[in-house]
Amino acid sequence: MARFMPRQAILSDIHANLVALERALADCREQKVDQIVCLGDIVGYGPDPVACADEVRKHCAWSLCGNHDVALFLPVAVGFNRIAREALEWHRGVLRPGWLSFTPKVERWAWLQSLKSSRREGEVFYVHGSPRDPFLEYVEEGDVADMGFGPPRKIVEIFEKIPWLCFCGHSHRPGVVTDEYQWYKPQELEDLTYAVPRLGKTLVNVGSVGQPRDHNPDLCYAIYDSDRSAVQFRRVAYDVEAAQARIRSHPQLHERSWQRLKDGS
User: Fold this and answer.
1) For residues 207 and 255, what is the distance between their CA atoms, to the nearest angstrom?
2) Which end of the chain is more exposed for a tag (fewer CB within 10 A), N or C?
3) Strand residues in 50-192 grouped as ranges (E)
């Protein structure tokens, strides 16, 4: 098994919410983590794509590419609803350098374009979506439901791709999935912590920093302690009203993007 930094903070789905990202990074410092990484979707929905890209690039050891990130480099954001598509079109216009752009803008764009869809370190696999489709596939609680015919083929195939432990984001709904196909929400775990068994396989959705959607407005990320083989979820309150005000100040962004922050929907 590869040697990890002992305490690794895993962020995902920042979605250009700088207020939430800055609070998450501050909490990482308070928790004295050894390394911060990102599972993608730095952009999308929010008001601060430039600043968020710069903060991730500065503070994260590495970042993956999410489906919103890769859409920056497509001619048209196919497969996105109107809210997401309009935000991405604005983000592309803000981020993409022109012929006369200064070096920082060119380098930021090149960095975003260089991000990969997955990463493996020893027996730990990191993806944005799922091990079966790192960009687009969601892993959700309903995927593990046994309707009387055994576990769904989807979750079986997903677990076939996991070496031992896998971290993902994308759905904005945190949880732990065991290889017995049981889904545990963070609040169902003692101290929001799951001890990863050495035998078997585990998938962890780390939740969302910038757009939580599990009806809890607090930002969410996870800390992986490789020495203890444990994952702890962090739910951290941040200034939601300030984040909402920043979104409202940009007419290019749909009102739903700020409304949903209040109740984590």
Assistant:
1) 22
2) N
3) 62-63, 118-121, 124-127, 165-168, 175-178, 183-184
> Please, what is the angle between helix 49-59 and helix 18-30, to 10°?
20
In the prediction, which pLDDT does 147 show? Answer: 67
Residues of the chain with pLDDT under 50: 1-3
The whole-angstrom separation of Cα 101 and Cα 49 is 17
CB atoms closer than 10 angstroms to residue 196? 20
Please give the pLDDT value at position 164.
97
The answer to whether position 265 is within a domain reads no
Predicted confidence (pLDDT) per residue in 43-52, tens digit: 999 999 999 9
143-182 pLDDT per residue, tens: 887 766 778 899 999 999 999 999 999 999 999 999 999 9
Domain that holds residue 194: 7-258
Q: State the CATH number of the domain containing residue 151.
A: 3.60.21.10
Q: Say how many Å lie between the first and final Cα of the chain, rounded.
A: 38
DSSP letters spanning 8-46:
EEEE---TT-HHHHHHHHHHHHHTT-SEEEE-S--SSSS
- Tell me the three state secondary structure of residue 177: strand
Q: Give the count of domains, the chain.
A: 1
Q: Is position 99 within any domain?
A: yes
Q: What is the DSSP string of 120-154?
A: EETTEEEESS-SS-TTT----GGGG---SSSS-HH
Q: 141 with 175: CB under 8 angstroms? A: yes
Tell me the CA distances in angstroms from 84 to 69, 129, 255, one per residue in order: 12, 17, 12
Alpha carbon of 158 to those of 39, 152, 178, 196: distances in Å? 17, 10, 12, 18
> What is the full DSSP assignment across 211-248?
---SS--SEEEEEEETTTTEEEEEEE---HHHHHHHHH
